[in-house]
Specification:
The protein has one domain. Helices cover about 55% and strands about 10% of the residues. By secondary structure, it is mostly helical. Helix 6 packs across helix 8. It starts with 14 loop residues before the first helix and ends with a helix. Bound molecules: zinc ion (ZN).
Length: about 240
């Protein structure tokens, strides 16, 4: 396997959580993509009916790249391009996964192992246990996607149409939706690593453990996010929503 964080069989330990757990596994990636999109500087400038377009555009870019690199040796590709991957064992701010520097002088990816370990212990005892190695493989795949953008000059926000809006109500302007890049990088990592769940669920679990909360807190947060997504992105209303 190119990446250890592959899909797992569900480990259901009580009947009561079965339904909720299956819901998490089957949950639409668009809901997590929405949580990224709403952080974009231009989010409020995107017409409501166009929000789903940016979510889909980012997901499509990540998915296509994952299909192209399926089974590839990401570390080998990075090495041959002169990118150094550094694994930091030291303490870091909570939630800091990894970062990439890529320009003429520096080609480097940093992976923060402490975060991978924290995520692993936060996911222990949940239906989706993840080892620290699996979490750090997801981090690497995420940064690999950004490496593709930088090294090929093919940025996700340029693959998606810009937002057209009027500046001061007069001048037409076009605005790039930069968070499409994050949406794509998460989907690339998820698909490449064949993760059963969206990587953002790992972050939610990390926050839950810091709050001394269980997996139920994560499920509730996802439920709230889902409701917000349907309210904010009316074009996303599909068969899935009609059931609710
Ligand atoms: Zn990123």
């Amino acid at each position: 396997m190119p990446c250890a964080a592959r899909a797992r069989n569900l480990r259901i330990f009580t009947k009561g959580v079965t339904e909720a757990v299956e819901k998490v596994g089957a949950i639409d990636d668009a809901i997590f993509a929405y949580s990224d999109l709403k952080e974009d500087f231009v989010y409020r400038r995107i017409p409501r009916e166009r929000r789903s377009y940016y979510i889909e555009c980012g997901i499509k870019a990540g998915r296509e790249a994952a299909a192209k690199y399926r089974g590839a040796d990401l570390s080998g590709i990075l090495r041959s391009d002169g990118v150094t991957v550094r694994y930091f064992p030291g303490d870091v701010a909570s939630g800091l996964h990894s970062q990439i520097y890529y320009d003429n002088k520096t080609k480097q990816i940093d992976i923060f192992l402490k975060t991978a370990e924290r995520i692993s212990s936060a996911m222990q005892g949940t239906p989706y246990p993840v080892t620290a190695e699996e979490a750090s493989a997801l981090f690497l795949a995420h940064e690999f996607y950004h490496f593709l953008e930088y090294s090929q000059g093919r940025y996700t926000d340029e693959l998606c149409e810009p937002v057209r809006s009027k500046f001061l109500g007069i001048w037409n302007q076009t605005l790039k939706v930069r968070r499409t890049s994050e949406i794509a990088a998460f989907i690339f990592a998820k698909d490449f690593c064949r993760s059963a769940i969206h990587p953002k669920i790992l972050d939610f679990a990390l926050v839950a453990s810091e709050k001394s909360q269980g997996f139920g807190w994560v499920l509730e947060r996802i439920d709230r996010l889902r409701a917000e997504y349907y309210a904010e992105c009316p074009a996303a209303r599909g068969p899935q929503n009609k059931e609710e």
